[in-house]
Write a structure and sequence with these properties.
Blueprint: H1 25-28, H2 37-45, H3 47-56, H4 61-70, H5 82-93, H6 97-110, H7 114-138, H8 145-152, H9 155-187, E1 197-198, E2 208-209, H10 211-226, H11 228-254, H12 259-263, H13 270-281, H14 301-330, H15 341-348, H16 354-386, H17 405-421, H18 424-430, H19 434-451, H20 459-485, H21 490-509, H22 526-539, H23 544-596
Antiparallel strand pairs: 1-2
């Protein structure tokens, strides 16, 4: 692990101290506020002033692109192109979700119309992809959504959002690692717990230790830390093999297709069932946001990112729709197994051997999801470390590999600890609303980016923007609440009219203050506004305990922010201001000398 890094902030400078093999307090808290207990007490005494400063603070594009990167001392290697991004996008999204979620949605909610559910949730995900794409092209940095929110909605909102998404990344990584063991056991004709170590002394749901999950996580970590290009090649090959397996499942399944299974009672649960299923199936599309963290390693962001992100999502939507249709053609929806839908469908058709193909496809899919998950975690954490909202040691980029080794190792340790002890049942219940929360914020931030520029937008236009955004978000929340509480339709008319009027008012009464330089979302503000509405609607389908977990974790983040992150980021921001002021003075002095000459 690279240690001894001096990141800009708190008077620390930009150089690299002599490296050592051990970490010191300076590696984690180099800022002035933590130099001594006296300094820390003084910082706490000024918490109110500092909190006011940071809540209102917004970063700038050039700060994210230049100054934040400089704090890593070394640069990530630009080795990726659009081809790599397409396979990263598919590999990050297309894991075991198609095998796990399709049967549940078809059997319990949508019937054969699960195909429509996959399409609706895919369109919703595509709207978020478009918003991410514009930001990624304009701000190709490792922070992804964290950077986008810092620039448009401020430090505090970005911190809360990023803290939640990192928690979800850890939980998702641990869950996929334990699922990897389960599918591997299927290939070996064993029960998953046969490969786990039972420790009766530990509490239930934490007493089946999973060493295979730890081993596969460590192997993925080594690959991700050593070389991004090698990781990309491995991901491309594995994802292509995964798609070949899915094509094989499609072709084999179609040989047992019965059109009557699909056409008879196509909408058994009505359109409400289709929407209910689409809310669940949306999570089969989650993961593309991690591709946005690869911005610093892409050769031509303006060309490669739109092709990679949008192209991979279109492939994923098509694949999910085709495979779900195949399943419903093989069996009547009422006979589909909710837990092992494809395996049992092939078994019912007399092809018991196909379960091994399904397991192999799931394992390959989960391996690429693990890789993409870890790569995204590390880059998120690296950029947060650059801002000093997380320990500065995480900002380090290894000079030889050009990868964030420190962040990769630390996130792997977290994944392994959770995956080793925690059962899949507990992990499934821990997945929170963070992803949808951030997707909504990014769409909101895109509208802010287009219609508000500090120092240029008038107070009147700013107030109009706030009103319209409040109405868009408020009507979206009202729609989600009405969906949960009522079976009627009148409420949708009211909330829909408000959403439409607010979006139309935004388009007609406000002029866009900033145009994208290279690539932009079309039909602004309609598409990002629709993205907000879709994401908030899906939030309404999530159970109450998930919101409670979200609130508890957010409270933990707030405690850390008040006592550590606030003061570290405040010192780093003051150092940045000082460096900029010195650079400005030096530039003025140079100009004056040139004029005198």
């Amino acid at each position: 692990m690279v240690t001894g890094i001096e990141a800009a902030g708190g008077g620390q400078g930009n150089g690299i101290r002599k490296r050592s093999c051990f970490c010191s307090k300076e590696d984690f808290l180099p800022e002035e506020s933590f130099k001594s207990w006296g300094n820390y007490v003084h910082a706490l005494a000024n918490t109110k002033t500092r909190l006011t400063d940071r809540i209102l603070a917004r970063s700038m594009d050039h700060q994210e692109l230049e100054q934040m990167r400089a704090r890593s001392n070394n640069q990530m290697k630009k080795t990726l192109n659009w081809w790599d991004l397409i396979w990263f996008g598919i590999g990050a999204v297309m894991g075991a979700g198609i095998f796990v979620l399709t049967g549940q949605a078809a059997r319990n909610d949508a019937g054969p119309a699960v195909v429509i559910s996959y399409f609706i949730s895919g369109v919703s995900a595509l709207l978020s992809v478009l918003c991410y794409t514009e930001f990624s092209v304009e701000l190709p940095v490792a922070g992804g959504s964290f950077s986008y929110l810092r620039v448009e909605l401020g430090d505090f909102v970005a911190y809360i959002a990023a803290g939640n998404i990192l928690f979800e990344y850890v939980v998702a990584g641990a869950s996929v690692a334990r699922s990897w063991t389960s599918y591997f056991a299927t290939l070996c004709n064993h029960n998953p717990n046969d490969f786990r170590i039972n420790v009766p002394a530990l509490a239930d749901n934490f007493n089946h230790l999973d060493p295979i999950a730890v081993v596969i996580s460590i192997v993925v970590c080594i690959g991700a830390a050593l070389s991004m290009k090698a990781s990309s090649r491995f991901n491309s090959v594995t994802t292509i093999v995964h798609l070949v397996v899915l094509v094989f499942i499609f072709i084999t399944g179609m040989t047992k297709a019965n059109p009557a299974n699909f056409t008879t009672n196509f909408l058994p649960f009505g359109f409400r069932g289709v929407l209910k299923a689409s809310a669940v199936l949306f999570f089969a599309y989650v993961g593309f946001d991690g591709v946005a963290t690869l911005g610093e390693e892409i050769k031509n962001p303006g060309r490669d990112i739109p092709i990679g992100l949008i192209g991979s999502m279109l492939v994923t939507i098509t694949t999910y729709c085709v495979l779900s249709a195949t399943l419903c053609l093989m069996q009547p929806y009422s006979q589909i197994d909710a837990d092992a839908s494809f395996t049992m469908a092939f078994q019912a058709a007399g092809m018991n051997w196909a379960k091994y193909i399904v397991a192999l496809g799931a394992i390959k899919g989960m391996t690429t999801v693990l890789l993409a998950n870890l790569i995204a975690q590390a880059r998120y954490f690296t950029h947060i470390g650059r801002t000093h909202m997380a320990p500065a040691i995480l900002a380090s980029i290894h000079p030889k590999t050009g990868t964030p080794v420190n962040a990769t190792v630390i996130m792997t340790v977290a994944n392994c600890l959770v995956a080793l002890f925690t059962s899949l049942d507990v992990l499934a219940n821990l997945l929170s609303i963070s992803t949808l929360f951030i997707f909504s914020l990014v769409s909101l931030a895109l509208i802010v980016r287009r219609y508000y520029v500090t120092g240029e937008t008038s107070t009147s236009d700013r107030n109009k923007l706030i009103i319209f955004l409040t109405l868009i978000v408020g009507s979206s929340i009202a729609t989600a609440v009405y969906w949960v509480l009522s079976q009627g339709w009148i409420g949708y008319v009211v909330t829909g009219v408000i959403w439409f009027a607010a979006t139309l008012g935004l388009q007609l009464t406000l002029k866009q203050a900033k145009k994208p330089k290279l690539w932009g979302v079309p039909l602004v503000p309609w598409l990002p506004s629709a993205s907000i509405a879709f994401n908030v609607f899906i939030l309404g389908s999530i159970d109450v305990p998930s919101f409670i977990r979200f609130a508890i974790w957010t409270l933990v983040l707030l405690v850390y922010y008040i006592f550590v992150a606030l003061h570290a980021s405040y010192d780093a921001a003051r150092e940045t201001d000082r460096v900029e002021a010195q650079a400005s003075q030096a530039s003025q002095a140079t100009n004056m000398e040139a004029g005198t000459s």
